[in-house]
Amino acid sequence: MPEFTLDDRLAQDGHYITDLPLCQLRLMKDARFPWLVLIPRRAGITEVSELNEVDQRQLWHEATRAGELLSACLSGDKLNIATLGNVVAQLHLHVILRRHDDAAWPAPVWGHGEAVPYDDAQQAELGATLRNAAESMEWAV
């Protein structure tokens, strides 16, 4: 069985938070938007339909829980969950907590301005907060 390898772009664009039962959880390096990415740890998968039914259910459960995680740790007005894959083919799912006053509202966040990276202290604090909260949650279906 081929081994899971994280796409270089996903590695570059996000900070590692933790591994969930199916996915690697990463925080996007853009402080303008509370934004998590879930990447199923399955080799060669580019579409949700390529996952077996058990993994599809687990992916949706993890996406739902990741949204709850963001909402519990940060304030927001609307939760967006999406898969695109036009730039990075490896299956990944975006979980974004939107705010009515964010830089892109109400438009999608993609292609809107330049990313604003977290400074080291912000990233460390938010990463630890998300990791600690994630560890207290049930992620298995």
Automatic annotation (TrEMBL):
Note the superkingdom of the native organism: Bacteria
Task: List, alphabetically, the InterPro entries matched.
Answer: HIT-like, HIT-like_sf, HIT_Hint
Where's the HIT domain?
Answer: 36-105
Supply the Pfam families for this chain.
HIT
Q: Which GO terms describe its molecular function?
A: catalytic activity
Name the UniProt record assigns to this protein: Histidine triad protein
What is the native source organism of this protein?
Answer: Halomonas halmophila
